[in-house]
Amino acid sequence: MTLRLGSIVEALGGELHGDADLLIDGLAPLENAQPGQLSFVSQSKFLKQLAACRASCVIVSPQVAPQARARGACIVTDQPYLYYARVTQLWKKSLPAVAGPLIHPSAVIDPQARIHPSARIGALCVVEAGAKVGANTELKSRVTLGERCVVGERCVIHPGVVIGADGFGFAPNAGTWEKIEQLGAVRIGNDVEIGANTCIDRGALQDTVIEDGVKLDNLIQIAHNVHIGRHTAMAGCAGVAGSAVIGAHCTVGGSANVLGHLTLAEGVNISAGSMVMRSISKPGHYTGIFPIDDNASWEKNAAALKQLARLRERLRALENQLASLQNSNQGPL
Predict the structure, then answer these.
(1) How far apart are CA 279 and CA 268, in angstroms?
(2) Right CATH number for 3-94 from 3.40.50.11550, 3.40.50.970, 3.40.50.720, 3.40.1390.10?
């Protein structure tokens, strides 16, 4: 498949420098793009790779445009990465349509489930009683949608996702555990994408809620009664414990964890690998990572860290003693 360079700019905008009739037969990263392919530069730190790039055309910002024009054809736009994303969408729309039924014959759908006629249900999916799938939503293979759970419109649910398993709820009883039945469901808004093998548990009493535009990567655990605000994005292997509330437009890095019953304000960004142990009321970038080191040094630092509370008390006592001495030395006026 090929796209004319001019047709890309006609569809998506941008300022083209170069031959509009040039044919593009693929998209590729900057470092290994070949003639006939389109690439992009999102940051000025990649200028060295830009100079050596063999792509027929590159997508660049105005700041990088002089170097790109010296190299060859380019499309200049204020947001090169966003433009690249829209090129991928345009490219996919140009591919031949996928044949086959909207509902795969191996899918198991309860008669009481409601599936919009435009939704696509993949192989070996299970949609249980009372569940609802909205317009133009696609459940890839082996997705399980539990009873009474709702997925909105234009969502993409990737293979192996489980929506609506029981949340982890047990009450202690004389050395054993008594199950707390999970009576809520899961409500997922519109334009949500959920990565492979991610699990979203149903609520204990009220529903677990994923608002519009949320993007979840692979292998994420969302516990019962969590509420994730609109357009928040979470990277792979992140985990959110029960009843946490994450605001809109947040990001959570890979393998980061948010403890239960905490609240993150709108616009909070959590670094990869961090452990969020308190609520965060102001937007900003937060990190809680003990730096990696060789094991012997790490153990020494960890041992010292355990003494911080005792050292703090000793320092406080010394400060009080010093203050008393200074007061006694001043004497009466």
Answers:
(1) 11
(2) 3.40.1390.10
Return the pLDDT at 47: 85
For the chain, the average pLDDT equals 95
Predicted TM-score of the model (pTM)? 0.89
Q: What is the DSSP string of 294-319?
A: -HHHHHHHHHHHHTHHHHHHHHHHHH
Q: How far apart are CA 318 and CA 227, in angstroms?
A: 47
Kindly indicate the confidence band of residue 118, based on its pLDDT and cuts at 50, 70 and 90. very high
The backbone torsions φ and ψ at residue 162, rounded to the nearest 5 degrees and listed phi first, read -120, 115
Q: What is the DSSP letter of 194?
A: E
Q: Which sequence positions are flagged as catalytic?
A: 224
As a whole number of angstroms, the distance between CA 83 and CA 71 comes to 20
- Cα distances (angstroms) measured from residue 268 to each of 162, 249, 280, 289: 27, 7, 8, 16
